[in-house]
Task: structure prediction
Amino acid sequence: MDNTINNVAELLGAFQFEGTLENTDQLHDGHINNTYTFSFREENGKLNKYLVQELNTYVFKQPEALMENVMGVTKYMREYVLANGGDVERECLYVIPAKDGKPYYIDGENRFWRCYNFISGAHSCQSVENTEVFFNAAKAFGNFQRILADYPIESLTETIPNFHNTVSRFADFKKAVADNLSGRAAEAEAEIEFVLAREKDCSVLIDMLNAGELPLRVTHNDTKLNNVMFDNETNEGICVVDLDTVMPGLSLYDFGDSIRFGANTAAEDEKDLSKVSLSLENFAAYTLGYLSAAGESLTKNEIEQLAFSSKLMTLECGMRFLGDFINGDVYFKTEYPEHNLVRCRTQFELVADMERKMDAMQKIVADCCKELGIEK
Ligand code: GN1
Ligand code: MG
Result:
């Protein structure tokens, strides 16, 4: 996907922006979409800032259905915030429509654009600088799940089918290895073995779901730390962003993916594997924050699988990075040829550390439940 913005004038004519354009900027956070900010000034001096995104239609093959999901969920969240006396400008995302009223605009080159309000007076974090940040992120994602608990799940389209279905992810991975489209599988023999040795793990949660032992919920499915906006004054997580993958899923996907990213003592793509480990301190902070917000609504089985889900989601993400390396880097944006291989090694190092620390993680979950008086 071309990541330059060469059609500002066209976009200016396409969306219902207010004011005169002052500047545009690019944000480099995500691995999938291209994201920009557009700032406008009204005659009375008021600044209006918007988040303009080009959706990656290789990844999101049903962009209209995706935007329907987003419209439904953002309206629902807005009503919740209004009913609770919150600030809808800062505590929820809303879609700025195109001039034809649609929640997106398709440009002359068939590129798919959409626009949101920009959350002001807030920041995102690329790493966990202290446990308070991670505790606050956990509360934000826990609240998000709690608020959407009664959202009509059947109205959501599964825009990426089987997104966190680890059985189907494992099958995709084996296919990538067999097809070896990039010819690079030989460079990753040890990593491929690492995944193949953990096939059994991949079916644990899916088997429980199919047996009715875990409930299907409305989930975010991309709970990276940088998908929470933190208030500049209070550091509270005021708004959960990046709603592209809001779909039916397991609460454990959201919990586990947060741990994968935020409880790693190193960056997602750290090359020096000696820096990679699971921070039990961060795991404890997140678990406490998450359970304090969503714990009452979780079932016993969900709580019992929290620690395991952290390992599983890390394995899944590593498997996806490695599969993409072998497929020739067609899915995730990369900055250099081995980037996906480096990313998968980081994930697998973290999986191995979680395997060593699984008992300690289980104990932390039990201790948090005790502290919060959650009895299941
Ligand atoms: C992608 O673009 P970003 O960083 O929000 C990916 C997630 C992965 C993540 C790994 C739609 O999310 O599933 O966990 O990269 N999003 C999609 O960093 O595949
Ligand atoms: Mg995302």
Summary: DSSP finds 13 helices and ten strands in the chain. The domain at 131-372 is CATH 3.90.1200.10 (Aminoglycoside 3'-phosphotransferase; Chain: A, domain 2). The longest strand covers residues 47-55. The CA atoms of residues 50 and 117 lie 5 Å apart.
